Known about the structure:
By secondary structure, the protein is α/β, with parallel strands linked by helices. The protein contains 4 helices and 5 strands. The chain has a 5-stranded mixed β-sheet with strand order 3-2-1-4-5. It is globular, with a radius of gyration of 13 Å. The model has no long low-confidence stretch (mean pLDDT 90).
Amino acid sequence: xxxxxxxxFAGRPFLINSFASWCVPCRAEHPVLLDLARSGxxxxxxxxxxxxxxxxxxxxxxxxxxxxxxxxxxxxxALDLGTSGVPETFVISADGRLVAVVREPLTPETVERVIxxxxxxxxxxx
Length: 126
């Protein structure tokens, strides 16, 4: 599997969602991510400190909302991104700016209150 970078999503707002197969709250938020993906929101998954086989089993079991998944076995990329744990979701604007961060499991309410407004804000250059 090649390197996945946010550059692959350039030109439109997208989400980066850090998750792990061992993370119980990640399972709870997963249906929300599936709904976002179905509604056309591009999501990059970042498998945080996870085994690639376990990550694949997790996605096979629960469904795969991600346009791409990066495996961050040692957590180095997540640290660069500013992740403090999982799950976390970052909204990246069309021009590559960080416009919002949710440091808890996503809920439908959080999507409407934080994620969708940030995606709209991120659709236009800042």
